[in-house]
Structures are given as C-alpha cells and as structure tokens.
C-alpha cells in the first residue's frame, strides 16, 4: 500500500530581547551558571512576574511577518509540572488565547510550484533552566541546575499538519528561520537551541481522510537531523502498520548518533499540565495602534526582496534567491546597486568574489573590509574600461587586505588598462610573429585558437591590455 | 501610662517632641514581647538585634529632622512577608530555615520610613486557616482568653496588636485572614481593595485573592499604616496605578447622610445571638450618627465559600509547587531519586491543611474537571462581584458581622474543616469581589469574647469605610478595652 506522510511542526524561537521575559536579568548566553538570576527567575517565594514589552513587540513582528492575526487580548497561563530546571513548578505560557493565530507561509516546492502552510498559532512563554549532569569528577553522580536561561522569552510557532514530506518540512522550517532572523527577533542558532523544532509525524494510506496516529519527535537540532528524524519515523510507522501493528501516540526522542527515534513517554504517561490563567499577570492587551507601529518597522521580507530583485533589477531567479537569503547580504547588495547602478554586475561580484572572500576569511558581511562604497568604486573602474575584469579581481584582493580604494591601488601599481591601439597592436604583432604554427592552424579553421592568442597578448601586457580591443585587433591581423 | 499602651499617633507625637526616643520605645516593646510571648506564641521570630539597630537609625533621622510618619514606630509583620536577611517561614516547616534575600515591597515601604520591625508573626501555614492552629510553629493563643484561638490566618498579627506586643502589624487577607482575627482579638483590621497594595514579596497563597493590610489598635493608626503601604508598584502587575488619597484627612467623625446597606443574606441561621445583638446595636449607633440604613441583597452569597475553596485551592496548588526541595527550603536527604525527593520533601515539609488544599486545587484544575470546577467557580465569582457592584449602586458601605461566632476554643474545629471554613462565610465574598472591607471592635459576648463589625466599601474606596469606622469608634468605647495580659 502507498502511504502519505503528514507533518506538523512546533518551533521554539528564542527571542533576542536584552532582558528576560518576566524580569530584568540579562539573557546573554554562556555566562557563569546562575549569575544571571533574581528572585523572579529563581522562583523565590513571593516573587512576581512582570511582562517584558519588547518580547511582546517581537511576537507581534513575527506574527505580522507570518500573516497571523494579532490578538487584541491574550492571556498568560500556567503550565504545571515538576522538573528541577523549572523553578516555579510551572511554566508561564499562553494556552487558550495566544498572541498570534491563523497565519501562513508559502513554501517553494522547487519545481516552480509553491504551497501554503498554515500556522495555527504562535504563543509567548518562558524558557526553563538547564540541567548539567555530573560532568566533572567532583560532580559525578549529581545533577546541577543552571537557571541563567530560565525565564528567557520564547515564541512557540505551531504549524498546521500541512506538510507531506521531509522536504516540505525543511522548506517550511528554513523559510520560518529566515524570517525570524530577518526580523531580528531570533538569532536562529539551532545548535545553541535558540531555534528548536519538534515534529509531529504520522502516516495514512493515500486517499484516507482521517489522520493517522502521530508521534511527537523531540531533540532535533539541525536541518539535517530533521530530515533524518522524519524519514526514519515515517519508515518506522509504515513498517509497523505493514507488519500488523498500530502506531501509538507518544513522544519520541531523536538520537543523532544512530539516526533513530526512541520512545520517551506514551500517552498514558503524558502530563496533565492543569493549565489555568496566571493570576499574577493581567491580560495582554495589544491596541491596533501598537500593531500598526510595529508593522511600520518591519523590514522588507525575503519573498518581497526576491520579487523585487527579479522584477525591478532584472536578476535571474537564482541570483535573487542567493542574495535575499541573508538580510545583511541583501542589504550589502542593495547598497552596491544604489551606488553602482549595474545590478547584474553587482550581483556577480557579490555572489562571486565577496561571498568567496567572506567564506575564506570567516567574516560577517557587515564586517567586510570591502564595503559597498569600495566595491562600487571598483565596479566603476571596470565599467569605464580603466581596468579589465581580471585585473579587477587582483585589485579586489588587495582592497580586502588594505581597505584602500580601487583608484588608490590602480594608481599606485600602474594597473590602468592599456587602451592605446598602437601599443596593443605592437603586442599583437609580436605574438603573431612568435607563433607561426598556431597561426597556420587558426587559418585552417581552428577558430578556438583565438583564445590562445588573446591569452598571450594579455600575458605580454601583464593583464593591462583591454581584452576587447585585443580580440578585435587579433582577428583583424590574423585574417590578414 | 506605659509606653506600650500608646497608639502609633501618640507615639509619633512623643517621638517628635523628643519626650521618647525610638530606642526607648523599641526596648519597652522587646521587653513586653519577652514577657508575653511564651503565653501567646504570636511571634515566630523576634528581631531584637535588627530592631535595635533600626531604632538607633530612626533616632538619628528624627534628630536630623528627617521624620516620616512611621519613623521609629514599632511594627511587627506576619511571617508571610519576605524580609531581607531575616528568616521568612510562612508558618511552614518547608521554609523553616529560609532566609530571604529580598524585601517585599510593603516591607521596603515601611523600612523607607524607618519604621522599626520588631519581628515576624505567627500564622497559619501558607495563610491557610482560620484559627492559627495550622502553624508549624505552634498555635497562637487569644490574649482575651488563652483557651481560645486568635483567628487566622493572621492570628499572630491580631494577638500581637491586642496584647500590645507591637503598636501595629501588617497581615494579609485572602478570605478573611486579617478581618476575622481582628474581630476575635478586638483590634482594627483592614483588607484593602485587590490591587491597592503590592503583593510583591508576599509569599503567595491564592494570587487573585491575597491582599496586604494593616492591623492596629484604632482607626487612625489603621489609616496611617495603610497610607504607608498603599500605592502602585511596577513589580506587581496586578497592583493598580491609582493614587491613594490622604486617609487620615477623611477621619472627621461626621457621617451624616451616609447610606449603609445591610445584606439580608448575612443575617441568617447560624449567626450567634451575641454577635447578632452587637451588630444590631452597631446599626443603631450608626442610625443615631445620622446614617441612613437600607436593606440590600447579595443573592449569590450562599455560593461564596464553595467558590472560594475552588479558586483559592487551585491557585495554591500551583503557587506551592515551587517548594520542591531543589533550590531552597526543606529537602529530604534520604531520597532515592528525583520523584522520591519531591515526595518526601513535600510530605515532611507541609502540614495537613496545606496538603488538603493542594490536593483539592490539583483536582479542581485537572483535565476533565476544569470546566465543572475552576471555570464554573470563576463564573460564580463574577456573579458575586456583580452582587456587590449592584448593592453599591444603592449604598455607600455595607455593614455585616465579621464572623458568625466569637473566637472558638483551641482544638474545637481542627477535625472539622468544613465548620472551620464556614467561619469565613462573611469575609470570603469580599475577597472574591476584590473590594475593600474592615473589621472593628463592636462589643463583647456574654462570656467576654470580642465581637467585630465588618464595613465593606466600594472598590478603591477605603477612605469611606475608614471614615465610617472612625465615626463609630468616636461614638463607642469598645476599642479602648484591653485584654489582661
């Protein structure tokens, strides 16, 4: 029998507010354990939460960018369960009335088709702390609690069960990831856990309307593992059904070592979280004016950027995709285009030399020594034939190292392109004279040899001759 | 007259005129506490050292002319308030050795005025109780009759003020925990409107009902204490950003034309005859003072106790989850694993009544029962609140008994929690409605036990009940009687 896969995803995005969601402690990662705590995030008797307005703003931003309806009134609720990393014995979350609902994202299916994935809701909540299990000889056998992360703000974004393959799931996740990073509300770091994903996976015979029983997969911290986990789980469920078994509703942990999922707890062991509205917090009221204020600060999102790059700048779809993938890269590119005008050559340079150099030197685009101003200066010298594209690459290398302008380097090193017909003619004559055999072959119809002659002339000019002129003169002279 | 017989207002006057120093006052009180506490057990912790230091600081401030209304005045606080560097037990074994690192907002406010904090007062564990018998630190005795309970949960606070162990005290009231012990001990106690005083740093019992308030010897002192702690606090999201008026300014004694409502549902079977008589006499006094007496109805009163025991226990079951032995408080050392540690620590750390309420609340919030219990209770709560708002369309304040009977005997209701719960039948609706009310002395029973009168005000209109209470106090002598101890 053929089976259809059904996937819904729950993403926890850690919001990059400077302070925690219900207290004033810093959210900085990697500090001394428990150094960023106070009575509120330690859950001391009598301490009370106060909502961080910035976290709400970030939730509104994300909601708007994912086409959600922003609730004019939402409620914080307590999710009750015991665990040593949860200082109050409950997590403050949102349950019945979340801040965002009814959104969607369009994902690209790769064949030019797109598909709309529904977003059920996005709700705000606090993170728990971290347990460290006896990693040193002194702490062997004991568990240590670090509450620095406790009470940092999370936005849990829950999709509809609209995805039908691991590919679609990954396309959705990458899209969502790109958006939250673009918005500046999440740093998107999967490994550090600031962008976490749980997958609800089930299978059903093709054509069946009802969903199959789902398993919730947890502990997946890279896009690659998400694919692995889903594919493993789909296969496991199909095998189980085919062999006469039944899928049970359970939570399963993904093990990146084995690529397998294993049962963590079944439905009967599922917690009864006893959600109820948190009496320590008043309803969160978001006015239309606040929503509009936030909307006005939204950056141009990846889809809109791609569209503009293609429609307005005439870039190929591939270029638009690459350049829009990262907000800073897109900003860099946009700045270049504003200065240099020629969008295609800007795109070529940014996607070529700039990206290569960034990768080579492990540099962030915002810290690139060749700024859009410097790059556009270089592009101008190519455009006006001062230097050839090839020489420009050498100049670019030096600009990267020294931070000097293209003009400074061209001047200092005498790289100005030779456009004097007489001088080029001389070199052309020399090359023709020195290679009689190749001339004969060329004349006998081996047109491709023109490249050989151009190369020789360029070499003789130390790259400074204008390649177009060289080509033209060579053809003329060789034809006789 | 001895120092500890002076009211806050009288002490203020003596301190300002340098007839007394804060150090002398504090010394006198510490002696009084030492002499009387073995009988009463109203203090869990006496802070002799810090109180002495605070008194010296207060004297320096007075000498420098930097005097605030409470500077140098001897106050004691219920052991539910977090006090930096001092033990904060909340009457529980589970916090038996817990030293808080921070001050509750209310404590910060009286400290900012350089009041002297004499100690931390006994209470029912986690404020759950009506007799102060549910304390891990032993029962408190009623200074009027040592075989009787002082009421609860602020039993230590009421007993302490009645027995002149402090000039005034701070307590908390979730279902009557200030007013009922105030009535049993013949002191003035006020539960402000929910949101009037910050709950930050007050160990939570039932967050949507808890409120901080004063217990004092007379209405003026009560107003002075309320003034010190009232007002918006950004650290408590449920505190309300409306300025507190000058409460003492309203104490004129003139209440001509005041419309007082008697809710007919409060004068029913089960109301003790002596209490009924005292409240009727008080009503007559008000009529004589020029008030207009009107009968009103609060139709949903009968559901209040049931509603309260669903909402309060539900919130408590969650609020008390943090006492897990992981970060602070009692931890069972012999546990075999994590779950075992939780169970053993909580089994050993909590008393019977606390366990009972955690279980009730957990049940009320459980999946499948939530709608029938917690949600239904919230709807009833809305109706009860509406009852009060409707009544306040017709009258300015409501006049009722505080409790159906005077103080009962120690041990009398320990094994009958339902009977115990019913002693809060007149106070609980006020917490559910979120409005303000106070208890003031209005007489004594045939066997000389104090009886309290409850005045209930409109939300945020504490000034109206204080004014009405002051007029009554001026016209009567009940507040001047003292227990012999």
Task: Give a written overview of the molecule.
The complex is a heterodimer of chains A (480) and B (485). By secondary structure, chain A is of the alpha+beta class. In chain A, 40% of the residues lie in helices and 20% in strands. Chain A folds into three domains: 3-292, no CATH class; 300-413, no CATH class; 421-479, Orthogonal Bundle (Arc Repressor Mutant, subunit A). Chain A is built from 15 helices and 16 strands. A nine-stranded mixed sheet of chain A has the order 2-6-7-10-1-11-12-13-14. In chain A, helix 12 crosses helix 14 (450-460) and helix 14 packs across helix 15. The longest helix of chain A has 20 residues, at 223-242. The radius of gyration of chain A is 30 Å and the shape is elongated. The mean pLDDT of chain A is 91. Chain B has helices at 8-16, 22-40, 48-63, 105-112, 155-162, 179-185, 219-229, 273-288, 304-319, 338-349, 352-365, 371-394, 417-422, 428-433, 462-475; strands at 43-46, 74-78, 116-121, 168-173, 188-191, 211-216, 259-263, 292-296, 397-401, 436-444, 450-457. The longest helix of chain B has 24 residues, at 371-394. Chain B is built from 15 helices and eleven strands. Chain B has one domain (1-485): Amidase signature (AS) domain (Amidase signature (AS) enzymes, Alpha-Beta Complex), CATH 3.90.1300. An eleven-stranded mixed sheet of chain B has the order 1-3-2-4-6-5-10-11-9-7-8, with helices on both faces. By secondary structure, chain B is of the alpha/beta class. The two termini of chain B are 15 Å apart. In chain B, strand 2, helix 4 and strand 3 form a beta-alpha-beta unit. The interface between A and B is large, with 28 and 43 residues.
